[in-house]
Write a structure and sequence with these properties.
By secondary structure, this protein is an alpha/beta fold. The chain folds into three domains: 80 residues, Arc Repressor Mutant, subunit A; 96 residues, Periplasmic binding protein-like II (D-Maltodextrin-Binding Protein, domain 2, 3-Layer(aba) Sandwich), CATH 3.40.190.10; 103 residues, Periplasmic binding protein-like II (D-Maltodextrin-Binding Protein, domain 2), CATH 3.40.190.10. The strands form four sheets. Strands 4-3-5-13-6 form a five-stranded mixed beta sheet, sandwiched between helices. Helix 2 packs across helix 5.
């Protein structure tokens, strides 16, 4: 079969006309779409800037590479500037692209924040949130945290279960609670999401007439010479005490344990009655000293602050719980304890 030259030329001319018309149509559509900046175009731009690749960005955005190219071309048309330059390692933003990157991040973040605020304003949150908490966060942080949260969502109620740290995390694991406020993450780091809601440090408490009562600081080597009152094994404070001893190469067996009790309050009572000394949270110790029950002595080796956490399951939660989690992220705890005077 032979094809005449005139037919080939005519076919080529027709194809060229079709291609030109398609390009012109795409350009007009793109220009019309970019009379104002589209959020999805900015998101595409930021994805390319982060991945340094049009193809990787397309895969991540679950779209075609052609769509990604179109979005970038439309942005370049809008800003009348080249946004990316090709390198041996992919693509890099130009100076114009760097300027857009900073602005785009702010635009998308503010748009998302506004969306959340509007969504929140449209609805009244109702329901009950169950928190299981270990002694220190349950007594000294959760009450003020809930109080602040309920200023925004007064219709949300709370139930608090007092348990030690490991029991609290176990309850969260069995869906017996929505959140757990604890003093340790040990053994559960991969099972839950954690955020810090406060901090404290370990201090020694003694009775008011104890020989160590008037000292400003004490070494662990002096602490272990005294009868000692300790929390139960699953307590977050107990776990931190064991860490402190281990870090200073002092075996737990060196402690002359006379009592093992289930709450910080019971330890304060026992210490105030002269039954021994103990190491507890500085938050609880400050209030006990302010009440005239014990004396607080800093431990030389316990300089590091202990973090207190709120934990949640790694799954979607009901709206009141999600709102509470977001509130916890921005919550700044301040101890309301009366400052102790030194003797």
């Amino acid at each position: 079969m032979t094809i005449r030259k005139t037919n080939i030329k005519a076919l080529a001319k027709k194809r060229k006309q079709i291609t030109y018309k398609q390009s012109k149509k795409a350009y007009i559509i793109g220009k019309q779409a970019m009379e104002t900046i589209r959020f999805d175009y900015l998101n595409t731009f930021l994805t390319v800037a982060r991945t340094h690749s049009f193809s990787v960005a397309a895969k991540e955005l679950k779209t075609s590479q052609g769509t990604v190219s179109h979005h970038i071309a439309a942005l370049e048309e809008y800003f009348d500037a080249e946004l990316f330059k090709r390198t041996t390692n992919g693509v890099e933003v130009t100076d114009a692209g760097a300027a857009l990157k900073e602005a785009a991040q702010k635009i998308l973040q503010e748009a998302n924040d506004t969306k959340v605020k509007i969504s929140t304003a449209k609805q009244t949150l109702l329901g009950t949130i169950i928190i299981t908490g270990s002694n220190i966060p349950e007594e000294h942080i959760i009450p003020s945290l809930i109080s602040e949260y309920q200023k925004n969502y007064p219709a949300v109620k709370f139930k608090i279960k007092a348990q030690d740290s490991l029991m609290s995390l176990s309850s969260l694991q069995t869906n017996s609670a929505d959140f757990a406020a604890v003093g340790t993450t040990k053994g559960f780091e991969e099972k839950f999401d954690f955020i810090q809601i406060g901090e404290d440090q370990l201090v020694l408490i003694t009775s008011c007439n104890h020989k160590l009562a008037n000292q400003k600081t004490v070494k662990l080597s002096d602490v272990i010479k005294n009868q000692f009152i300790i929390r139960e094994e699953t307590s977050g404070t107990r776990i931190e005490i064991e860490k402190l001893l281990e870090n200073n190469k002092i075996p737990l067996s060196s402690l002359q344990v006379t009592l093992e009790l289930g709450s910080t309050e019971s330890i304060v009572t026992a210490v105030s009655e002269g039954r021994g000394v103990s190491i507890i949270s500085s938050l609880a110790a400050a209030k006990a000293q302010a009440a005239g029950l014990v004396k607080v002595v800093e431990i030389t080796e316990a300089k590091n602050k202990r973090k207190l956490y709120m934990a949640r399951p790694k799954k979607a939660m009901l709206k009141p719980s999600e709102a509470f989690w977001e509130f916890c992220k921005s919550y700044k705890f301040e101890s309301k304890a009366i400052q102790c005077t030194t003797a």
